[in-house]
Amino acid sequence: MKQISKYIFCQIILIELLLFPIYVSMNYLKWNYGKSLKRSILSKIRKPIDKDKIAVCVHEWGGYEGGRKKKIKNIKEFECGLDSQLSRFQNYEGKYEIDLTITLSDAHLLNRKIEYVKVIEVSNIGMDFSGYERFYESIKNEENQYVILSNSSVNKLQSEFIDSYVDFFKENKSIGMLGVSLNSKIYQSLIRNNFNPHLQSFFLLTTTDVLREVVEKNSCFPGKGIDHKLLLIRKGEVELSKIVLNLGYKLACVLEDGKPFLFDKSFFIDNGKAFWNIPFGDYRINAINPNSINPITIK
Predict the structure, then answer these.
(1) pLDDT digit string (tens) for 248-281?
(2) How far apart are CA 258 and CA 274, in angstroms?
(3) Domain range for residue 262?
(4) Any domain includes 297
């Protein structure tokens, strides 16, 4: 399977190489002429939710310690781990009902016991998306509800965020998915001037119904069965945001200052650039506390 995923990724890169002048020219036109703020597409509205319940999935790889340090190229090192994620959700005392599930890949590597929470063992093929996909399958037939998909790479810094996030999400029904970090481009590409904005997948807030739409549109959960990391970013993380945008929803990201940044497809040839007024690239490069969840400070 890994060889197949690697082959598909190499095939994508080969196509980019063969069509390099066309891709670069298309992106040049988008960067320089796709700046109209005129809207020709109305944002889609999410289906209503009748109960204040949040289904939470935290994915973990069995080989990780409960607390660890994470270093990503060009990004400040930070502490994270499952222990802080469990504390974040198990100690919550807000107004919403939390139903927490841990999805665990390579469970045989785990050197400790996870207690007082539901655990679903999954394959490590697809990494985080293997857990997200399996969790979705477990709730897809339930009544529409709020859903948090996350993993153990969230910064260990704690904050009271759940109420402000869900309240904001509830009030802004055109948002299909909300995250805490984003990237304006695909780094796993030969086209260096590409603009493909997407939420980073270590924390996402959405609904069961939006996920149903995504799966129906994609014929499966994005990233399913992919075990090549670079392809998984393109066909999992990036594709998930792309589908939500193409469905007509807005995407939102809560920045470090607590202000939500929203973008959508403002017109048919645009994919969010018309409203992009924050630095381009990986948002975490300039973050003081990368991968942290910051409470919303404005309404």
Answers:
(1) 999 999 999 999 999 887 555 565 666 788 888 9
(2) 22
(3) 2-286
(4) no
